[in-house]
Amino acid sequence: MKYISVFCGSSSGAEEIFTEKATVLGKAIARKGYGVVYGGAHVGLMGAVANGALSEKGEVIGVLPRFLQKKELEHKSLTRIYIVDTMHERKAMMNKLCDAVVALPGGYGTMEELFEMLTWGQLALHKKPIALLNVEGFYDPLVALSEKMIEKGFLKEEYRDLLIVDDDIEKLLLKMESYVPPKNEKWFETK
Questions:
Q1: For the chain, which residues make up each domain, given as ranges?
Q2: How far apart are CA 144 and CA 73, in angstroms?
Q3: pTM, rounded to two decimals
Q4: One digit per residue, pLDDT tens: the chain, 191 residues?
Q5: Class assignment of domain 6-177?
Q6: How far apart are CA 18 and CA 184, in angstroms?
């Protein structure tokens, strides 16, 4: 891994622990020598991740849609920023720039980015580790939903491991470093 895309909220959430963990994640990524790729804003958990990495002299690349730049959300201290026209272009560029993905708590946008990367992994369009930093059990319901998908026959068991989950940042990064993608490709399996 060289670059890790971080998906997270553009708000800080209702509890200070979310901002604290976002900052610590940014610092930990930089200390390990990885670069951060993220949505390019200075607000919320996004800004906390970027600031954490920058405080450790880490490389931070932002990818920001033009309409959000016009709302003055652009982080002005990044190593590099790409301004794109659409949210679709943002996701495509973040995917192109990264070798791994980690999601912090967030809302619909975070979920949409996460699920697209999971779907692409399931279809073997990439073989990148995808992780959840499960701050204060935020992602417990999503993990339970994944288990329900397996139980009800909508997700094969071998795809459970597409999603790396931990509440400890160092352990999460170690799991990402040792990730081995599933061997099966969804549409090429034989029975």
A1: 6-177
A2: 34
A3: 0.94
A4: 899 999 999 999 999 999 999 999 999 999 999 999 999 999 999 999 999 999 999 999 999 999 999 888 999 999 999 999 999 999 999 999 999 999 999 999 999 999 999 999 999 999 999 999 999 999 999 999 999 999 999 999 989 989 999 999 999 999 999 999 887 666 555 44
A5: alpha beta
A6: 35
